Amino acid sequence: MSIIRHQPSKIWSAAVEANGMVYLSGITADRLPASVKEQTAEVLAKIDALLAAAGSNKSKIVSCTIWVPDIRYRDELNQVWLEWVDTANLPARACVTSQLANPNLLVEIQVTAVK
Amino acid sequence: MSIIRHQPSKIWSAAVEANGMVYLSGITADRLPASVKEQTAEVLAKIDALLAAAGSNKSKIVSCTIWVPDIRYRDELNQVWLEWVDTANLPARACVTSQLANPNLLVEIQVTAVK
Amino acid sequence: MSIIRHQPSKIWSAAVEANGMVYLSGITADRLPASVKEQTAEVLAKIDALLAAAGSNKSKIVSCTIWVPDIRYRDELNQVWLEWVDTANLPARACVTSQLANPNLLVEIQVTAVK
Asked: For a Cys staple, B40 with which of A31, A34, B77, C2, CB 3.0–4.6 Å?
């Protein structure tokens, strides 16, 4: 069984391929400060790139967890989500709240996809 | 590799079958307002129905994440959980806190099962 | 398809083997009160033991979710994490916040590994 790890930082890998699946870390924006919509767009673009590097794409996402510091941000992130997501292949999803690593961070998204 | 998606809404699928597994969204109650126990019972009944539609059942759940807005709700939800769960086949579980989508929501449950 | 469950309590299994993967519950420390570092060390030792019992080990972890009651605890937990983790095989990770089951609990960690 081979496990392939992508974009390792000091403490995690941004994506891990194993057993026919791709597991991504919770992804956040780099360009800060920025609005919920701007951060969501940046995060989803990073997810596209990570999935592509692992031989997958957004149509193959099976589940997604989204963390926001305030649940009221959900409407704004959903606007960007709906423009991005493959509407013929919607993942299972949970959107919940958490304090994020940096007070400027307004959204963190983690996905699991089939290869 | 075929991916089968169940009960798509505008933004997610309630359940996704892939790679021998079934991934469910975070499920919440529709009948609101209701007590923690009532909501937990409704959510677990929805999970039973989604697992059945995907050819699985509660004895095959491998992991479960539960979100409650206040950790003190855990005792009440556990009473309903213990009546429902297959005690010979207990999943891995984490019960943590989150603000939920609607202030009336008192529990959200996400499970992953083998098909 | 066989599913193997390890260390069942009344409400969960500490680890579940299925489909070539090992799914662990959110693990917390028993020795309380204790510092973030002490609790992280105890939790990671428990995770080592559970992975070993399921025929896996920390080099095969694909994803990890960490919950802390205050995001500022991340620096302390990361110090212990960095001494423990297999730096050649870093998992995907998300570190988010949650009220935990007991006010003395300062960290909860859940991992998924390949067998």
From this structure: B77
CATH superfamily of B4-114: RutC-like (3.30.1330.40)
- pLDDT tens track for A6-18: 999 999 999 999 9
- Residue of C8, C24, C110 with shortest CB distance to B90: C8
Among chain B residues, the shortest Cα distance to C103 is held by B71
- Evaluate the CA torsion angle C54, C58, C60, C64 in order and state its sign: positive
CB count within 10 Å of CB A107 equals: 29
Q: What is the pTM of this model?
A: 0.98
CA distance A51 to A111: 9
Over residues A34-49, the pLDDT tens digits come to 999 999 999 999 999 9
Residue A97 near chain B (CB below 8 Å): yes
Domain boundaries, chain A: 4-114
